[in-house]
Design a protein that fits this description.
2 domains, OB fold (Dihydrolipoamide Acetyltransferase, E2P), 5-stranded mixed β-barrel, alpha+beta, 8-stranded mixed sheet, BirA Bifunctional Protein, domain 2, 434 residues, RNA-binding, 13 helices
RNA sequence: UCCUCGGUAGCUCAAUGGUGGAGCAUCCGGCUGUUAACCGGAGGGUUGCAGGUUCGAGUCCUGCCCGGGGAGCCA
């Protein structure tokens, strides 16, 4: 008599059938003789009706009417198309089994402050919107793997504990490593990917990165996830072509497979539909000119902040590449422009709608002498980079790669304001709980 | 690190230097289709902490603690 255990996202395939839903009580309403239980199971939400009559007497209705929110339960009933029900389908309940009653649930149906929600992040992820964001994140991750694997890339996992800075400038989280002194949480897997691309040709890592900078903006976390592909024999332009194809693929896949989540987030999908290659390309020099035309006091040699990035991105209807930055404001490993050694063969990709930089990429220095000079100029510890220099001794070749910030990309696609909602458990300067 | 805003009931917020309230949540009652349901009733407070000014401080002053927003830095 009891029906098949079905997930809510598949309910529409069971119209007229008896099924069982296992989940949690998301909300409830009652009207004396009818009790409405809104049940969620992680795949969706469905309204269950319990009516006075054959299956429920007045006593039992009273019990279910008072069931605390987030209680775990199993409901059995018949799937019915119902215009009045949110989602178009509802469950005509015949039996409810209480798995566990909940304590009074802290997150309620009305307003909450950011502070309160962040303090209860472990519960907040149950909510409809947060659930939608994290489902889209999952899709982004899967689409990245699908895209790169189909193009012959090999996933190579980088170490998280590292002996020294990849880029010298940024601050690292340090910890004691037995008798070997300090170790640091990785701020980038790039240098290891450069080693790996000389072994496998095309490689990528999708891993956490850590920055101990005291950044306090909606675009920063101390722990974030980064995709870092690295390709042997790719020049800086091959690199950009790969980036625009990847970003377009990710966005189109989310549009194709996560429509419902985008609706929950009330994301205007029109700007996303436009995300197709090729992306516009402007030089650093052109970017400076745009800013000056817009009245910004930008000088050649300045780096761009969030406001500047927004102004530049507003000129275009899709992500825009900015290439050929001054070498002085970029990392030590970037290949100089052969026509002007003050510039490097790099690119930043700025997302539309003010979401800022989502990719930083470049061709890498492959000449041993030049790289040694750069390491010295940046006062980096030569011993720590011995293995990295080896890559330029044994069959060195031009190669390129980039880093894509997962949370910034997810936040942009979802249209959410702050990237802390784009990761399940954000780590920020003033928050490490829960 | 700097700038800025804030901390009052479980939550979101009110309260001219003069008896700390409301909505939601909780508990009790009502309602035959609710849509953040609705209607009636009840309980619920060391106003972040420590000093100070004052006849009197949630309110003014000083310090500290904890958060929010932003800058720099970066993905």
């Amino acid at each position: 008599m009891s029906g098949e255990w079905v997930s809510i996202e598949n309910l529409k395939n069971y119209e007229g059938k008896d099924v069982e839903i296992r989940g949690w009580l998301a909300n409830r309403r009652s009207s004396g003789k009818v009790v409405f239980l809104i049940v969620r199971d992680g795949t969706g939400f469905v309204q269950t009706t319990l009516s006075l009559g054959e299956y429920f007497d007045k006593e039992s209705l009273k019990t279910w009417e008072r069931l605390p929110l987030e209680s775990a339960l199993i409901v059995e009933g018949k799937v019915r198309r119902e215009e009045r029900a949110p989602g178009g389908y509802e469950l005509e309940g015949r039996k409810v089994t209480l798995v566990s009653s909940s304590d009074e649930y802290p997150i309620q149906k009305k307003d909450h402050s950011v502070e309160f929600l962040m303090e209860n992040r472990h519960l907040w992820i149950r909510s409809r919107r947060q659930n939608a964001v994290l489902r889209i994140r999952n899709q982004v991750m899967m689409s990245i793997h699908e895209f790169l694997q189909a193009r012959g890339f090999t996933l190579i996992d980088p170490p998280i504990l590292t002996p020294a800075a990849c880029e010298g400038t940024t601050t690292l989280f340090a910890l004691d490593y037995f008798d070997l002194g300090k170790a640091y949480l990785s701020q980038s897997g790039q240098l290891y990917m450069e080693a790996a691309c000389m072994a496998f040709g095309k490689v990528y890592c999708l891993a956490p990165a850590f920055r101990a900078e005291k950044s306090k903006t909606r675009r920063h976390l101390t722990e974030f996830w980064m995709l870092e592909p690295e390709m042997a024999f790719y020049d800086w332009q091959d690199n950009m072509r790969l980036q625009e194809e990847l970003v377009s693929f990710i966005v189109q896949e989310v549009l194709r497979k996560k429509r419902r989540e985008l609706e929950i987030l009330e994301r205007d999908t029109a700007p996303l539909e436009r995300i197709q290659p090729p992306f516009p390309r402007i030089s650093y020099q052109e970017a400076i000119e745009i800013l000056q035309r817009k009245g910004f006091p930008a000088q050649w040699g300045d780096d761009f902040g969030g406001d500047e990035e927004s102004v530049i991105s507003q000129e275009f209807d899709r992500p825009v590449f900015i290439h050929h930055y001054p070498a002085a404001i970029k990392a030590f490993y970037m290949e100089p422009d052969p026509e002007n050694p003050d510039l490097v063969l790099n690119d930043d990709l700025i997302a539309p709608e003010g979401y800022g930089e989502i990719i930083g990429g470049s061709e890498r220095i492959h000449d041993l002498t030049l790289l040694e000079r750069r390491i010295a100029e940046h006062h980096l510890p030569r011993e720590a980079f011995a293995w990295y220099l080896d890559l330029r001794r044994y069959g060195t070749c031009p190669h390129s790669g980039f880093g894509l910030g997962i949370e910034r990309t997810v936040a942009w696609i979802c249209g959410i304001h702050h990237i802390r909602e784009a990761i399940p458990f954000p780590r920020q300067i003033y928050r490490i709980y829960p």
